[in-house]
Specification:
By secondary structure, this protein is α/β, with parallel strands linked by helices. The protein has one domain (3-138): Rossmann fold. The longest helix is centred in the middle third of the chain and has 17 residues, at 45-61. It starts with a strand and ends with a helix. A five-stranded parallel sheet has the order 2-1-3-4-5, with helices on both faces. It has helices spanning 11-23, 45-61, 71-75, 83-94, 130-138, and strands at residues 3-8, 27-28, 64-68, 107-111, 124-127. Helix 2 (45-61) packs parallel to helix 4. Mean pLDDT is 90; it is low at 97-101.
């Protein structure tokens, strides 16, 4: 079964996906969406850096990276922050870096749509919803 990191703008959507994945035997290694801790203050570089480092470590532990699209962003009604795109780039980079890389990077999926043109690159699989992701992971 997969060890999954979920990257998403909305914790509720990430938690819903986590429940579905766990119900199908997968382990969710991302913790940001289940944390009771408040988000760091906007200008708190140390706290944001610590959070980013923690997320990067969890991405490194994953065998599957999932970026959940924001319906608002796809509809053009609201622009969402780019942290999840940085995380997606990091996950993709783990799979292509040579030399120090000890293992292949995680498989990368988008759920619900493609929010950034760079996510059309080779190696990214697009699924419509949680059921599509679970079916793809079963292959």
């Amino acid at each position: 079964m997969a060890k999954v990191y979920i990257s998403c703008h909305h914790p509720d959507a990430a938690n819903e996906l986590a429940v579905a994945l766990e119900a199908n035997g997968h382990t969710v290694v991302s913790t940001w969406h289940r944390s009771a801790d408040p988000r760091p203050a906007k200008g708190d570089a140390v706290a944001w850096g610590n959070a980013a480092n923690r997320n990067a470590e969890q991405i490194e532990q994953s065998t599957v990276f999932v970026l959940v699209a924001s319906p608002d962003h796809l509809a053009g009604t609201k622009h969402v922050p780019g942290g999840k795109f940085v995380e997606a780039g990091y996950a993709l980079g783990l799979g292509v870096i040579t030399g120090e890389c000890q293992r292949p990077g995680p498989k990368v999926f988008t759920v619900g749509g493609v929010e950034n043109g760079m996510l059309h690159m080779v190696g990214v699989t697009h699924v419509a919803d949680a059921a599509g992701l679970i079916a793809a992971l079963a292959k």
